[in-house]
């Protein structure tokens, strides 16, 4: 019996690491214009497969919050994968602009997901320093979208 | 239970309307923007036709007496929950004693507040809509007043992200299906009606001129002002059935568009009928606003209706998936 080619033979991780499967997934990603995909397995293992690179597991190859170290600015992250919307589609102005003060828990941007809209919120009060995602671009779950300089 | 702390006049309980009793002279009532009401209900996990609050005079404030989920759709009223700003077209879990405030919108006319489980007033003839003219339905057949308390049905909240979530507003999600003008005039699609031919060449100006929504406009109908359009020769008509969307031409020559609380019968000649799928846009138009009628077809109206149905179905099917996705992330 060939391991990893049938359901229930080997863990999901093993199945995904099967080179044939990997190749297929990478092909799908490239076809869909997606750079990478993260897969959480039953055991809580996190895998990231990047088109053109292959797979890495348990965060290897990830850039763990490079933003955090940038002058102590804190990230405001995408709550779900989707399209970044700096301005709510029913409004003309953004909820917060670069340089403005934001409150803890304040909604400062949005992610559009099909017909729905999810909020990006500031964890802590501070000053909105930067927006690091392009309007309309695809953002992944947990991607940093805004940088906030915490209030003293 | 919710408690109204502050309200202007004419804010009512509405659902999608009361149908099947027009032959007995019962108006359909129902939300002026049925699309906003439907989206609000879907965002809180209800069927799209549950009873909600239609708020058209501001400021409006209410307090929750128990944990529940609320959605605010329609006009952007800069809603605030305990002072915290909420985006428009938004659903959020709320706790007992929290206060929700709505301010006068800068655009559009009416906001809808939908609650998980719906407003629990007794249905009358199959609907919870308030008939202000009939004095029945909704809350004792009247508009809301401060200190009113309303029951909400169902078992309370359903899984929501802590900062809430929203729906893409129909103006954005359905942009390609609704015409817009360069100068901000609302374009309303209509089809020539029974007595159209009696207006002869005059009828052309019905389409070409820009009409202003006069101050004599309400949930019953919108009186438009503009250059009068007159019949080629006067006619006497027997009263006939009238439905929301019918555009009547009284002797003054300025049209009346029948809206949600439309009379069930009337004798004015009908020059046109607004297509049903455009009525929500008219329901959001404000007094003093400008509109222009665009001649449409049954095929175009049906295509727009299909797009609206697909939009609603997309929301209905995606909301539970969002809950599942978020639950998966919390486990992480």
TrEMBL record, chain A:
Gene3D superfamilies given in the database record: 2.40.50.100
Domain of life of the source: Bacteria
SUPFAM superfamilies xref list: Single hybrid motif
InterPro entries named among the record's database cross-references: Single_hybrid_motif (IPR011053)
Region Disordered, residue ranges: 54-74
Protein name (database record): Lipoyl-binding domain-containing protein
Organism per entry: Rhizobium fredii
UniProtKB/TrEMBL annotation, chain B:
Domain of life per record: Bacteria
All residue ranges annotated as the Carboxyltransferase domain in the record: 23-311
PANTHER family referenced in this protein's UniProt entry, alphabetically: 5-OXOPROLINASE SUBUNIT C
Annotated signal sequence range: none
UniProt keywords, alphabetically: ATP-binding, Hydrolase, Lyase, Nucleotide-binding
NAD as UniProt keyword: no
Molecular function terms, GO-annotated: ATP binding; hydrolase activity; lyase activity
Protein name: 5-oxoprolinase/urea amidolyase family protein
InterPro entries: CT_A_B, Cyclophilin-like_dom_sf, PxpC
SMART domains per UniProt: AHS2
